[in-house]
Design a protein that fits this description.
Layout lengths: L8 H20 L10 H10 L8 H11 L10 E3 L2 E3 L12 E2 L7 H17 L12 H6 L14 H15 L5 H11 L12 H4 E4 L10 E4 L5
Antiparallel strand pairs: 1-2, 2-3, 4-5
Amino acid sequence: MIIDVTFNPEMTRLFNKIQKERSDQRENEGLDFPDHFSLESVKERLGSYDVSNTPDKQALADVMIMLCIRPAEIKNLRISNGGVTGYAKNRGQQDIPRVFRSLEKNKERARQLLTWIQDAISSGQLRDPGKPGSIYLSSFLKKDEFIPKPYKPLLPSSLRKLGSVFAVVAHSAKNLSEAKSIASQALRHSPDSHTSPSDRYTIVNFRRRGQPYDQAKPFWISDEN
């Protein structure tokens, strides 16, 4: 049986418009997070990890927040000479070092924690969350105690969003311009790009640990208002 498919530009534009509207609607709702993944909780755990021990899934999630890492980047990211390489979106292109910026300000400690996780994955002590089809990290994030009812559970992609906002807060941005710069560096956006960080990475309903959810405020770095 042969099916004749004709390219229809109008249908393609309509589909793209609908897809964008749905995406915008989801993003405008903002990302909620439980106290367990608040800025204060993540910072405390990062400071307490003993790299002589075997890391667990919690440590993996915290390091991903710390460096705004995509699951596909966890094995290849490198921190050296004050720069970061191994950016997943630029595979196949020249791997130019990006400025080091993260929730953990000490680059040696950040490198130590990253290497700790990478070594555990290489040795098989931790599963690789970037492996196609992997639900290893997603299953961990869906634990009941991590879900602020009636909100949705965090996704692996949520960790990158949290990391970009937490980095801005941790580095005490003085104004919108500085906040954009910090977020772009934490996300390792190309320095040649003059656009602001994508909304999809930076809309988080930010609140301090213990603060009621209804008091959370949207943290929207690209909102010029």
